[in-house]
Amino acid sequence: MSGASVLLEALRKQGVEVCFANPGTTELDLVRAMEEVPGMRCVVGLQENVCTGAADGYGRLTGKPAATLLHLGPGFANGIANLHNARRARTPIVNIIGDHASWHLECDAPLTSDIESLARPVSGWVQRIASAQDAAGAARAAVRASLADGGQGATLIFPADFQAESVTDESADAAGAVAATEPAAFDA
Length: 188
Description:
The protein is α/β, with parallel strands linked by helices. It has eight helices and six strands.
């Protein structure tokens, strides 16, 4: 399995059933993997703010996290306003942000950005995946983090080369499911 398939399968096993996506070229392996992972529904949005708003609404209504799939830092930045609102409402969301291949980051391509700095103000937890082998564990940790503290954003940064890389150890089967919690009460 690819790192992308392992990540999506681990999210699904943790109860994440839908991904609101506005992918680009650095997320193509995740898009391909959507077809391989039964039970993970992909809903394409024509702009990132649509995706983050839909994930916020889904999380508020169900009490369980949806995923977003966003293109690099600039795409994530387009969805930050809704992620700010989601953080204030304690909505569980797992953001997956594609990034350039790890070996290409030093070239400082036009869409390269400091994704971690963009994500911290609207996420209670941020992690950059360092290899395909880390994908399943990172997915499980992201779901746990999204449900912590009454609900919050959890952001995974997934470089393109690790999405495509084969996973030799079937570590995606190693964890049990995380239970969804009731949505936190908030004043309207």
